[in-house]
Specification:
Aldehyde Dehydrogenase, Chain A, domain 1; Aldehyde Dehydrogenase, Chain A, domain 2; 2 domains; 7-stranded mixed sheet; 6-stranded mixed sheet; globular; binds glyceraldehyde-3-phosphate
Length: 541
Amino acid sequence: MDIQKLVSSIFPAETQIPPSAKIDRPVIQTQFLINGQIRHWNGSQNEVLSPIFLQTPEGAKQFVLGSFPMLSQKEAMEALDSACAAYDNGQGQWPTMSVRERIGRMETFARLMKAKRDEVVKLLMWEIGKSLDDSRKEFDRTVGYIIATVEALKELDRASSKFVIESGVMAQIRRAPLGVVLCMGPYNYPLNETFTTLIPALIMGNCVVFKPAKYGVLLLGPLLEAFAEAFPPGVVNTVYGSGEEIITPIMKSGKVDCLAFIGSSRVADILKAQHPRPHRLRSVLGLGAKNAGIILPDADIEQTVTECVIGSLSFNGQRCTALKMLFVHDSIADEFTRKFSNAVENLKFGMPWEPGVNITPLPVPGKPEDLRKWTDEAIAGGAKILNEGGGTVNETYFHPAVVFPVKAGMVLYVKEQFGPVVPIAQYSDIAEPARWVAQSPYGQQVSVFGKDPSQIAKLIDPLVNQVCRVNINSQCQRGPDTFPFAGRKDSAEGTLSVSDALRVFSIRTLVAGKKNEMNTEIFTAIMQDRSSNFLSTDFIL
Ligand code: G3H
């Protein structure tokens, strides 16, 4: 197979795109949502270039997918003020609404969202190059997440529907919202990861200003009407544009109570530092990671290869949870690297709509050049690209590269590559990968591949104190979404899962009183009259 040739002709002519995947006209999004109103923007627009190029008589041209608004500081502050007004210091309709009603609104949103599946999936493919299968999975997983969140909240609410009487004091303890939440999601899961903070933040009674990632913006446009229809005015507000122009003033205002951000630790640090009263800001952060796969001498090679291929190259390696460094023991390095690079050679590459495709073009401008630079640096240091055609570039497409042996001192040994490059290091002493994990600035997950329970046990105990998930003979991953997703060091702040997220976006609050006759009468009357949504023993089934 001549990979160079195939890569050079990877981009289709318009006539080769199946009708169901075609974009009939540019997606010019001028809408944004503030205070329940969908407004139209007449100012400057940011052009959205798809990672997909199309063949034309003049050569391959990058497809212009559409554009989105570059709002100014004025609209950003209006969005913030709208969220503040809807929250109204906790007195607004949304934060004081009963849990049952909030759940009803969320279910309406999920129903309206489901109707937009095809539109959102198509934009996911064109905007960030995600395969049709993975785009559908992202959409369906997100709807599933909403449904699971509703169930988890019912469970939480049931547990809070009772009184606690302790040392002569009676109390009802519930979780109350934090206030105004600024939600910012990442480009690799622009729908799912954004919604894993947005949905729990909303359902707990917070009001939200929401800015999509730099890439993966248009796909949220079809959901604006659903937000406007399902939630009271001001509860969800969307802003688009340059972070410096619109996010800096929002953070500097000091009116954000919670920052939910998924992206780089560099940007998270800047945002947090902009808040004038950092002690008032709760942060929920999903940041970088460079998860290692440690392959022990007795590992089941076939199974390890399968897990490491999906672990390192699903969505082109653009997952925070991807395996970004493999350590293989000397004794099996030849066999493992050969079988691994064969498996990579068998991955299907092409356009996102092609059935069974694994490797697709990359959305971030300049990424193929960066990946090439880092692999070239490793090659200059004595490493090789093992798979045929690995590292071949055509515009936004980078053919996956298995780089071996990667050693200390090379960029790929430490850099989070976030792309289709798989660095493999060889070790003789388990102390080397163990030291690598301990010295890494990241602390998200690790995978250990092997059969000997005593060897694995010896690794588990130190590793669980370095990262937040140790995967045995399995790739690193976030799911299932009911499992805690967290990270140490530069990888995260706070824990997310369906149920943990409800806790992260709320604070335990109680109504308490000495248990005497007067208080007992007052509490009883409030509950009998159902005059409070907080002090209530109503039970949601
Ligand atoms: O980019 C990070 C995502 O949370 C990864 O999720 O492991 O389910 O692909 P995943």
